């Protein structure tokens, strides 16, 4: 009997030590960093992936020591079926709870894409579709389907198949998650442009020779193309507003270039200025039928609040800016000075 008691006592001690060691391991698993790696891990979780598969993947990458324990932990917390699909950035210094929170409710990795002010819709689409991790849904080479995707009528003039899409998207930097679609990015850009234009139109200066927000958008796209100097935009807008008030033609080269289309080779010739296109503002009165590029918020604001000036002309100053003139005589002198700097 004494021998049995000694054995039982010894066994109890061993079991207690083992239990204590196991509890210590559990506490260590729960509280210590999940990995001794020095850099974060990016994992991509497909929709429908099981918690067991995710845990095993982390284990194989050395970012989790006990995948089954982690699975038990998720089940105990009732989070095993709530893991979010997408790309996660896992930090090695996290504990198990922080890892769980990221997988279940954390922010997924995002990538930036910039829509550039002054670019055409075709340039914009190409820029978007060159981005990594995007799902491509927009048929770039099929303008009719593009227009259908945005609920826009086909252009009247077949020479400009993308014209009705011009200017409709806000040139900003957007962030997207892996496998987000190019269509969704442009939908966000369109909503932002609509909001920007509507607000600016509501707060516009009184007496502008513009009948609709769309006319303001057209003019803003021209202003955007004429100057890359943000502080100049209200002055450029004022020149065109002043011309419209006087019944003068806008006579702006960017509209001529848009009218030339894919045949433009970098030079505007006399025949181009005489060409009868819907966009040649040397030949047509008023505004062209659509925007010619993406206008920024600054360009839209400039059109709604042009500078207080009587200027009717401007020409490059050779240093990135422009010289503004009230009369043709002053303008011609400014042109001569500019041409002299180009010799």
Brief write-up:
47% of the residues lie in helices and 8% in strands. With 343 residues, the chain is mainly α.
What do you see in this structure?
It is a single chain. This protein is mostly helical and 343 residues long. Helices cover 47% and strands 8% of the residues. It has 13 helices and six strands. The strands form three sheets. Strands 1-2 form a two-stranded antiparallel sheet. Strands 3-4 form a two-stranded antiparallel sheet. The chain is elongated, with a radius of gyration of 32 Å. The model is unreliable at 10-22 (pLDDT under 50). It catalyses: a peptidoglycan chain = a peptidoglycan chain with N-acetyl-1,6-anhydromuramyl-[peptide] at the reducing end + a peptidoglycan chain with N-acetylglucosamine at the non-reducing end. InterPro entries: MLTG-like (IPR003770). Belongs to the transglycosylase MltG family. Keywords: Cell inner membrane, Cell membrane, Cell wall biogenesis/degradation, Lyase, Membrane, Transmembrane, Transmembrane helix.
Ranges where pLDDT stays below 50 over 5 or more residues in a row are 10-22
Count of individual beta strands = 6
How many domains is the backbone divided into? 3
The percentage helix is 40-55%
Termini separation (Å)?
A: 116 Å
Sheet of most strands: 2 strands, antiparallel
Structural class by secondary-structure content: mainly alpha
**Overall outline:** elongated
> What fraction strand?
5-15%
Radius of gyration: 32 Å
Give the number of helices: 13
- Run of helices and strands: HEHHEHEHHEHHHHHHEEH
Mean pLDDT: 88
Question: Widest sheet: strand order?
Answer: 1-2
Catalytic activity: a peptidoglycan chain = a peptidoglycan chain with N-acetyl-1,6-anhydromuramyl-[peptide] at the reducing end + a peptidoglycan chain with N-acetylglucosamine at the non-reducing end
Organism: Thiomicrorhabdus heinhorstiae
Site (Important for catalytic activity): 226
Keywords: Cell inner membrane, Cell membrane, Cell wall biogenesis/degradation, Lyase, Membrane, Transmembrane, Transmembrane helix
């Amino acid at each position: 009997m004494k021998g049995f008691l000694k054995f039982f006592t010894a066994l109890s001690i061993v079991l207690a030590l083992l239990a204590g060691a196991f509890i210590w391991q559990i506490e260590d698993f729960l509280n210590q960093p999940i990995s001794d790696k020095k850099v974060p891990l990016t994992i991509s979780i497909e929709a429908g992936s099981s918690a067991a598969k995710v845990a095993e993947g982390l284990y194989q990458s050395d970012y989790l020591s006990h995948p089954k324990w982690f699975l038990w932990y998720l089940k105990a917390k009732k989070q095993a079926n709530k893991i979010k699909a997408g790309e996660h950035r896992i930090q090695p210094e996290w504990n198990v709870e922080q890892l769980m929170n990221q997988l279940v409710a954390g922010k997924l990795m995002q990538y930036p894409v910039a829509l550039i002010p002054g670019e055409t819709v075709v340039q914009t689409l190409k820029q978007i579709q060159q981005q990594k991790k995007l799902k491509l849904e927009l048929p770039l080479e099929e303008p009719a389907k593009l227009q259908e995707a945005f609920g826009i009528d086909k252009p009247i003039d077949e020479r400009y198949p993308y014209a009705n899409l011009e200017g409709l998207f806000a040139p900003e930097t957007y962030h997207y998650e892996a496998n987000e679609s190019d269509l969704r990015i442009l939908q966000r850009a369109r909503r932002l442009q609509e909001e920007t234009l509507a607000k600016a139109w509501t707060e516009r200066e009184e007496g502008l020779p513009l009948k609709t927000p769309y006319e303001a958008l057209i003019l803003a796209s021209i202003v955007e193309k004429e100057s890359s100097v943000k502080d100049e935009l209200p002055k450029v807008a004022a020149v065109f507003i002043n011309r419209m008030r006087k019944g003068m033609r806008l006579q702006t080269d960017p509209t001529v270039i848009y009218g030339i289309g894919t045949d433009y080779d970098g030079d505007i010739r006399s025949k181009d200025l005489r060409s009868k296109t819907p966009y040649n503002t040397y030949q047509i009165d008023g505004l062209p039928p659509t925007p010619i590029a993406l206008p920024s918020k600054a360009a839209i604001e400039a059109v709604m609040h042009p500078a207080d000036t009587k200027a009717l002309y401007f020409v490059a100053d050779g240093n990135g800016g422009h010289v503004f003139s009230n009369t043709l005589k002053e303008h011609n002198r400014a042109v001569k000075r500019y041409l002299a700097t180009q010799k």
